[in-house]
Design brief:
It contains three helices and no strands. By secondary structure, the protein is mainly alpha-helical.
């Protein structure tokens, strides 16, 4: 999972997992592991929503209690923070999920 979290091939640790932002490569460039066989489906999105929610609730509470900003200003800050956290965490969680599926050898058998 750690190798996947870093965006590396879970088998060899050298090749890259993604071709773009979230597109999983067909095969690892170094060890030829079939990375596209590990289908993550919606699990990374669900974990990302969970993590962003868990992180934002205390930030929102402390931000409102300590700084007492105007509601629209607080909404602006929280909106930007939500988007940034989601974009950063989604790639990390998807890579870790590919690593987990590789570790338990959970390949997509095909439709």
């Amino acid at each position: 999972m750690g190798r996947g979290l870093l965006g590396r091939c879970p088998n060899c640790g050298r090749g890259k997992v993604f071709t773009g932002y979230l597109t999983v490569r067909d095969r690892c460039g170094d060890c030829d592991e079939p990375l596209s066989a590990y289908k993550t489906a919606d699990l990374p999105a669900v974990f990302t929503i969970l993590l962003v929610g868990v992180l934002l609730v205390p930030i929102l509470w402390v931000g409102f209690a300590v700084f007492r900003p105007e509601p629209l200003v607080l909404f602006g800050y929280i909106s930007v923070l939500t988007v940034l956290l989601t974009l950063v965490l989604l790639r990390l969680v998807k890579g870790a999920n590919v690593g987990y599926l590789w570790a338990i050898d959970e390949r997509d058998p095909g439709a």
